[in-house]
UniProtKB/TrEMBL annotation:
Coiled coil: none annotated. It comes from the Eukaryota. It comes from Oryzias javanicus (Javanese ricefish). Signal peptide: none annotated. InterPro entries: Rieske_2Fe-2S (IPR017941), Rieske_2Fe-2S_sf (IPR036922), Sol_Rieske_ferrdox_dom (IPR054716). The keyword Phosphoprotein applies. Keywords: 2Fe-2S, Acetylation, Iron, Iron-sulfur, Metal-binding, Phosphoprotein, Repeat. Residues 23-122 form the Rieske domain. GO terms for molecular function: 2 iron, 2 sulfur cluster binding; metal ion binding. This is Rieske domain-containing protein.
Amino acid sequence: MVTSKTKDFQKVMEAKDQTAPGLHFVGKKEELIQAKRSFRTLEGRDILIIYHEGVFHAVDSYCYHAGGMLQNGDIEEINGKMCIICPKHKYKITLTEGECLYKGKDPREKSPVTRWYSKGVKQRIHVVTESDGNVFVKLSVSPAWIESDYYQGEKGKVERAKAEAAEKKNPITVDDD
Ligand code: FES
């Protein structure tokens, strides 16, 4: 008997077959919308897929700064850009470019005022596409080193594990600015 579940599964498998090289099926659109945050490992890379205000984003799962898990980070619009706030030390990372934003003053100005600045691209961002209710991620192929790459590698994995163990002993608390 062919049930609707079987048909759905067949559709998904067909969609997978149709994917262009490097395009990974990550889930049904409705499921990812409901989940809001979904963790996937693609080609050995840990990725966070976020659905926020009608838009999908895919970012490296571990914060470039010290490997914090971005999965539970709040999302806020800062200076016109949607950012995920790392739960560990509250760094603000834009979801579309992977830039880290910080507040500061330019001492070269006559009367320095506090404003948002960018530290540049620190977190690797991946491309999300949708087709027929299926969602796909294509990993970023930018050859330049991006700091979040570190926590995807073996050394980074070891450091993350050490930091997690240390944090269990002495939990970190950071105030929002
Ligand atoms: S680990 Fe993310 S802000 Fe430090």
